[in-house]
Amino acid sequence: MAAVGTGWIPIPAPAGAGDNPACEFSPPYEAPPYEPAQKENLPLRPELIDNRDGTLTDPATGLMWAQKDSYADLGKCLDWNQSVGYIKDLSAGNHRDWRIPTIGELASIYDPTQENVKGWDQNPEYPLGLDRKFSDGAAYWYWSSDCGTTELTQCCGKTFYFVNGMVHMRRFELCNNGGVRAVRSAKQ
Predict the structure, then answer these.
(1) Which segments of 52-171 are extended strands (E)?
(2) Using CB atoms within 10 A as the burial measure, which of 14, 45, 136, 160 is most buried?
Protein backbone atom coordinates (compact mmCIF):
# COMPACT_ATOMS: atom_id res chain seq x y z
CA MET A 1 0.00 0.00 0.00
CA ALA A 2 1.45 3.39 -0.97
CA ALA A 3 1.45 6.42 1.29
CA VAL A 4 -0.52 9.16 -0.47
CA GLY A 5 1.48 12.18 -1.62
CA THR A 6 4.89 10.99 -0.43
CA GLY A 7 6.00 9.00 -3.45
CA TRP A 8 6.87 6.13 -1.04
CA ILE A 9 5.97 2.65 -2.20
CA PRO A 10 6.80 -0.25 0.14
CA ILE A 11 8.55 -3.21 -1.44
CA PRO A 12 7.05 -6.57 -0.48
CA ALA A 13 9.27 -9.09 1.28
CA PRO A 14 10.64 -11.86 -0.91
CA ALA A 15 8.61 -15.07 -1.09
CA GLY A 16 9.36 -17.39 1.82
CA ALA A 17 10.71 -14.61 4.05
CA GLY A 18 7.96 -15.18 6.66
CA ASP A 19 6.40 -12.55 8.86
CA ASN A 20 9.69 -11.08 10.12
CA PRO A 21 12.17 -10.89 7.24
CA ALA A 22 15.74 -10.09 8.22
CA CYS A 23 17.28 -6.99 6.70
CA GLU A 24 20.60 -7.97 5.27
CA PHE A 25 22.69 -5.42 3.46
CA SER A 26 25.10 -6.30 0.73
CA PRO A 27 28.69 -5.27 1.23
CA PRO A 28 29.42 -1.86 -0.31
CA TYR A 29 30.33 -1.85 -3.97
CA GLU A 30 34.03 -1.40 -4.62
CA ALA A 31 34.78 -0.04 -8.04
CA PRO A 32 37.84 -1.38 -9.82
CA PRO A 33 40.80 1.00 -9.90
CA TYR A 34 40.56 3.68 -12.57
CA GLU A 35 42.56 2.96 -15.67
CA PRO A 36 42.60 5.57 -18.42
CA ALA A 37 41.57 4.30 -21.84
CA GLN A 38 44.47 3.27 -24.00
CA LYS A 39 44.56 5.28 -27.20
CA GLU A 40 45.12 2.20 -29.30
CA ASN A 41 41.83 0.75 -27.96
CA LEU A 42 39.71 3.79 -28.82
CA PRO A 43 37.53 3.64 -31.94
CA LEU A 44 38.88 5.46 -34.97
CA ARG A 45 37.08 8.66 -35.86
CA PRO A 46 36.11 9.34 -39.47
CA GLU A 47 38.43 11.70 -41.27
CA LEU A 48 37.23 15.27 -41.60
CA ILE A 49 37.35 16.58 -45.13
CA ASP A 50 39.19 19.86 -45.65
CA ASN A 51 37.06 21.81 -48.11
CA ARG A 52 39.94 24.26 -48.75
CA ASP A 53 37.66 27.23 -48.06
CA GLY A 54 38.00 27.60 -44.29
CA THR A 55 35.57 24.77 -43.55
CA LEU A 56 35.76 21.08 -42.66
CA THR A 57 33.06 18.49 -43.36
CA ASP A 58 32.37 15.46 -41.20
CA PRO A 59 30.97 12.76 -43.50
CA ALA A 60 29.78 10.71 -40.50
CA THR A 61 27.42 13.43 -39.23
CA GLY A 62 26.79 15.53 -42.34
CA LEU A 63 27.98 18.63 -40.47
CA MET A 64 30.26 21.36 -41.73
CA TRP A 65 32.50 23.14 -39.23
CA ALA A 66 34.32 26.46 -39.45
CA GLN A 67 38.02 25.66 -39.47
CA LYS A 68 38.76 28.63 -37.20
CA ASP A 69 36.91 29.08 -33.94
CA SER A 70 36.15 32.53 -32.54
CA TYR A 71 39.35 32.58 -30.45
CA ALA A 72 41.58 31.76 -33.42
CA ASP A 73 39.70 34.32 -35.53
CA LEU A 74 39.57 37.23 -33.05
CA GLY A 75 42.42 36.42 -30.64
CA LYS A 76 40.20 36.67 -27.55
CA CYS A 77 37.61 34.75 -25.58
CA LEU A 78 33.89 35.39 -26.02
CA ASP A 79 31.05 35.21 -23.52
CA TRP A 80 27.65 33.77 -24.50
CA ASN A 81 26.16 36.98 -25.95
CA GLN A 82 29.34 37.82 -27.85
CA SER A 83 29.34 34.26 -29.26
CA VAL A 84 25.77 34.67 -30.52
CA GLY A 85 26.77 37.90 -32.27
CA TYR A 86 29.91 36.32 -33.71
CA ILE A 87 27.93 33.43 -35.24
CA LYS A 88 25.26 35.78 -36.59
CA ASP A 89 27.89 37.84 -38.45
CA LEU A 90 30.11 34.94 -39.58
CA SER A 91 30.75 34.29 -43.23
CA ALA A 92 33.08 31.34 -43.81
CA GLY A 93 33.34 29.18 -46.89
CA ASN A 94 30.83 31.47 -48.64
CA HIS A 95 28.14 30.41 -46.13
CA ARG A 96 26.16 32.67 -43.81
CA ASP A 97 23.84 30.09 -42.20
CA TRP A 98 26.16 29.20 -39.33
CA ARG A 99 24.81 28.39 -35.88
CA ILE A 100 26.03 27.49 -32.39
CA PRO A 101 26.36 23.68 -32.09
CA THR A 102 24.63 21.45 -29.57
CA ILE A 103 26.63 19.56 -26.94
CA GLY A 104 26.13 16.37 -28.95
CA GLU A 105 27.50 17.99 -32.09
CA LEU A 106 30.55 19.27 -30.20
CA ALA A 107 31.08 15.80 -28.74
CA SER A 108 31.08 14.40 -32.29
CA ILE A 109 34.32 16.27 -33.09
CA TYR A 110 36.02 15.55 -29.76
CA ASP A 111 38.76 13.04 -30.49
CA PRO A 112 40.70 11.69 -27.50
CA THR A 113 43.13 9.95 -29.86
CA GLN A 114 44.35 13.42 -30.87
CA GLU A 115 46.45 15.40 -28.44
CA ASN A 116 47.76 18.51 -30.04
CA VAL A 117 48.80 21.89 -28.78
CA LYS A 118 46.31 23.97 -30.75
CA GLY A 119 45.18 26.09 -27.79
CA TRP A 120 45.51 29.85 -28.03
CA ASP A 121 48.48 29.82 -25.61
CA GLN A 122 50.06 26.61 -27.02
CA ASN A 123 50.23 25.12 -23.49
CA PRO A 124 51.51 21.52 -23.69
CA GLU A 125 49.90 20.73 -20.31
CA TYR A 126 46.46 21.15 -21.90
CA PRO A 127 46.43 19.31 -25.24
CA LEU A 128 43.20 19.45 -27.17
CA GLY A 129 41.33 16.38 -28.41
CA LEU A 130 40.69 18.08 -31.72
CA ASP A 131 41.51 17.08 -35.28
CA ARG A 132 44.74 18.63 -36.55
CA LYS A 133 42.86 20.10 -39.51
CA PHE A 134 41.27 22.69 -37.22
CA SER A 135 43.21 25.98 -37.00
CA ASP A 136 45.77 26.76 -34.32
CA GLY A 137 44.94 29.36 -31.69
CA ALA A 138 41.77 27.58 -30.56
CA ALA A 139 39.75 28.07 -27.39
CA TYR A 140 39.89 25.33 -24.77
CA TRP A 141 36.11 25.07 -24.52
CA TYR A 142 33.11 26.04 -26.63
CA TRP A 143 29.65 27.34 -25.92
CA SER A 144 26.79 25.13 -27.05
CA SER A 145 23.21 26.04 -27.88
CA ASP A 146 22.12 23.98 -24.85
CA CYS A 147 21.22 26.05 -21.81
CA GLY A 148 20.51 25.05 -18.26
CA THR A 149 19.19 26.24 -14.97
CA THR A 150 20.33 26.09 -11.39
CA GLU A 151 18.16 26.17 -8.29
CA LEU A 152 18.53 29.95 -8.25
CA THR A 153 18.10 31.12 -11.81
CA GLN A 154 18.23 30.47 -15.52
CA CYS A 155 21.84 31.33 -15.84
CA CYS A 156 24.00 29.09 -17.79
CA GLY A 157 25.06 27.65 -21.05
CA LYS A 158 26.50 24.19 -21.43
CA THR A 159 30.06 24.12 -22.67
CA PHE A 160 32.28 21.34 -23.98
CA TYR A 161 35.89 21.22 -22.72
CA PHE A 162 38.19 19.84 -25.43
CA VAL A 163 41.02 18.99 -23.05
CA ASN A 164 39.15 16.08 -21.46
CA GLY A 165 35.74 15.83 -23.15
CA MET A 166 33.75 17.06 -20.15
CA VAL A 167 30.54 19.10 -20.26
CA HIS A 168 30.29 22.08 -17.90
CA MET A 169 27.67 24.70 -17.03
CA ARG A 170 29.04 28.25 -17.24
CA ARG A 171 27.43 31.56 -16.48
CA PHE A 172 26.59 33.45 -19.67
CA GLU A 173 28.98 36.30 -18.85
CA LEU A 174 32.10 34.08 -18.54
CA CYS A 175 34.65 33.78 -21.29
CA ASN A 176 37.86 32.56 -19.64
CA ASN A 177 39.70 30.63 -22.42
CA GLY A 178 36.43 29.89 -24.20
CA GLY A 179 34.71 30.73 -27.42
CA VAL A 180 32.44 29.29 -30.06
CA ARG A 181 32.96 27.03 -33.07
CA ALA A 182 30.42 27.50 -35.84
CA VAL A 183 28.56 24.61 -37.42
CA ARG A 184 26.02 24.16 -40.22
CA SER A 185 24.49 21.29 -42.14
CA ALA A 186 26.71 20.32 -45.06
CA LYS A 187 23.63 19.16 -46.98
CA GLN A 188 22.20 22.62 -47.56
Answers:
(1) 55-58, 63-66, 141-149, 154-161, 166-171
(2) 160
Q: Are 109 and 67 in contact (CB under 8 A)?
A: no
- The answer to whether residue 31 is domain-embedded is no
Residue 110: partners with Cβ closer than 8 Å, 6 or more residues away = 129, 130, 160, 162, 165
Q: Using one digit for the tens of pLDDT, what is the confidence trace for 81-121? A: 999 999 999 999 999 999 999 999 999 999 988 878 888 98
Q: Is residue 37, in this structure, part of any structural domain at all?
A: no
Phi, psi (rounded to 5 degrees) for 83: -65, -40
**Domain span including residue 174:** 53-185
d(CA 19, CA 104): 52
CATH number reported for the structural domain that contains residue 63 in this entry: 3.10.100
Per residue in 6-65, pLDDT tens? 444 444 444 444 444 444 555 666 767 766 656 566 666 668 999 999 999 999 999 999
Domain count, the chain: 1
